[in-house]
Structure formats: C-alpha cells, structure tokens
C-alpha cells in the first residue's frame, strides 16, 4: 500500500539496535529498552533497523513502531498511531498518522495500555501489509530465550511493570540475592561467582535491577549485566567493544560497535583474573569519560 513507510535493510536482529540502548550519549535510552523488546516479541515476522538515529520495528520492511530518547524524556512511537484505539489517552501528537507516548524519568507508564498499543500497532501493520492471515498460524509458537522475557515479566498491577513493583518493596541487592536463590542450579552459582568477582574489584560497586529483572553493576555508568537464560548466564559489558580483551573472554555480541558479552555455560570455568581485568577496565573507561 502506498501509505506504508518501508525501510530497506530491516533484519530479524540488528546489533546496531542493541548498541543504541547502551550509547551513553542518550541518558534515557534504557527507559525504552523494555518496550522495544515488547515490539520484538510481537511475532516471528518482526524485523528491525536503526533509521534516523533510532530503533524501528517493522513487519518485513514496513515500519509500525519505534523508540527514541531525548534530553528530558523518551518516546515510544507509532507510525499509524492516529488510527490506533487509545482508551487510556496515552498518545500525543497532531500529525496525520504518527503518534507517540512520552516517558519521563520517575513516572511509571501505564504498562497495560502501552502494551495494548504495541500489540494493536503490530496487528494493524500486518493487516495493512496483507500478512495477517499467514502469521496467525505461527503466533502460538513460543521461542525459548530472551525474546520471551518482556512479555512474561510484564504484570497487570495498576499499570506498573514487574520491575517497578519489585523495586518498591526490595532493594536491588536483595532482588539479586533472590535471583541467585531462585535459579538454584549451576546458573545461580555462576551468577553468584560473577557478582563476587565484581565486588572484589570494586567493593563500592552499585547494584541495580532494571529492564524487568536484570541485575546491573554500575560505577560511573554501567559496567555489565548479569542476565540468566535456560542454557547460560550472560554478562553484557556496555562498552565492551572499547575494552582490551587479551584472553578473548568475549564470545557473544561480537558484531556491535559498542557492547560485548560473555556467555557462561554449564561446566565452563570462569577465568577469574581475566574477568576481573575486564571489570577494572570497564570502570576505568567509565570514570575517564566522566572527567
């Protein structure tokens, strides 16, 4: 259809999108990471790219939603937002088609209403592209792994996300304690070991709990994450591409321009000295950029 916005280069997973969220030049980019994950999880036909400096979600090459971040807020935007049902009145904008939801630091969004908008935008674009019927047959299939997490961890509790509800009742450190306990198996032991090594490098490290349930360690910025999956524990270093890695610990997210990650699998011994060197280098890089 002539009114569709089509972007060449959209792919199933674009590493530049993940790099965008960790780019320190946009302080509010992490606010919209969960919402872009929700777009990714809409269906197996969702593709993505970075266009005009922000992540865009498409069905095929037809755009339906995007996220962007600014100095004081972040946006979750919809290319056909003016046509979407919005009973909660979240959408802003006066253009012919496009609308956005503005997110501000410290103000929890109406999670249910925003989830409904994303789902409606996805259904709408598939109808516009004529792909709604075939994709419905594939929709019940659920892939294991990180794509499931945003949908599983969103809860209907007064419009608040699981991370928001938990954060109101427990400290990040206690939430990480509980995650280690809940994992119970080798993954819990690995996450506990990673945490111990980070604390040995920096006893004053700040522990955070973000993105609907991801442990984060910070010192003048993000050092790394501690993500748990079925078959591995992942530590993503926000500025890993700029860190020396002579021991070649990085084995994941190697194509991005900013981040790098280590996937720790069962039975693999952690090179403690090399890992601590990466943590120290990440802290040094963060503090150097703050000066």
Structural features, described:
With 291 residues, the protein is α+β, with helices and mostly antiparallel strands. It has 2 domains: 15-156, Alpha-Beta Complex (Aspartate Aminotransferase, domain 1), CATH 3.90.1150.200; 170-290, Aspartate Aminotransferase, domain 1, CATH 3.90.1150. Helix content is 35%, strand content 20%. The protein has 9 helices and 11 strands. The protein has helices spanning 15-22, 33-40, 111-129, 132-138, 149-153, 162-169, 172-183, 186-201, 272-290; strands at residues 46-51, 54-59, 62-69, 74-78, 99-103, 206-210, 214-218, 222-225, 227-228, 232-237, 260-265. It has a 5-stranded antiparallel beta sheet with strand order 1-2-3-4-5. Strands 6-7-8 form a 3-stranded antiparallel beta sheet. The chain has a 3-stranded antiparallel beta sheet with strand order 9-10-11, covered by helices on one side. Helix 7 packs antiparallel against helix 8 (186-201) and helix 8 (186-201) packs across helix 9 (272-290). The protein is elongated and about 55 Å long.
């Amino acid at each position: 259809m002539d009114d569709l916005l089509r972007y060449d280069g959209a792919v199933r997973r674009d590493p530049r999108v993940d790099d965008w969220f960790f780019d320190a030049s946009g302080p509010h980019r992490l606010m919209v990471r969960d919402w872009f994950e929700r777009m990714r999880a809409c269906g197996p036909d969702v593709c993505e790219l970075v266009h005009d400096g922000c992540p865009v979600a498409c069905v095929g090459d037809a755009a339906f939603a995007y996220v962007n971040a600014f100095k004081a807020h972040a946006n979750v935007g919809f290319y056909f937002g003016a046509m979407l049902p919005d009973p909660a009145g979240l959408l802003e904008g006066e253009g012919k088609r496009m609308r956005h939801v503005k997110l501000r630091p410290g103000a929890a969004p109406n999670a249910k209403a925003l989830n409904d908008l994303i789902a409606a935008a996805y259904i709408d674009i598939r109808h516009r592209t004529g792909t709604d019927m075939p994709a419905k047959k594939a929709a019940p299939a659920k892939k294991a792994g990180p794509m499931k997490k945003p949908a599983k961890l969103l809860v209907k509790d007064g419009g608040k996300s699981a991370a928001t509800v938990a954060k109101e009742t427990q400290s990040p450190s206690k939430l990480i304690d509980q995650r280690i306990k809940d994992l119970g198996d080798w993954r819990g032991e690995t996450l506990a070991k990673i945490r111990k090594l980070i604390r040995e490098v920096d006893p004053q490290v700040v522990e955070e709990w973000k993105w609907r349930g991801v442990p984060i360690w910070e010192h003048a910025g993000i050092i790394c994450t501690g993500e748990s999956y079925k078959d591995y524990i992942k530590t993503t270093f926000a500025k890993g591409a700029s860190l020396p890695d002579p021991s070649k610990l990085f084995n994941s997210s190697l194509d991005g321009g900013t981040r790098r990650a280590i996937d720790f699998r069962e039975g693999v011994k952690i090179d403690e000295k090399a890992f601590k060197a990466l943590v120290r280098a990440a802290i040094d890089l963060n503090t150097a950029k703050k000066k």
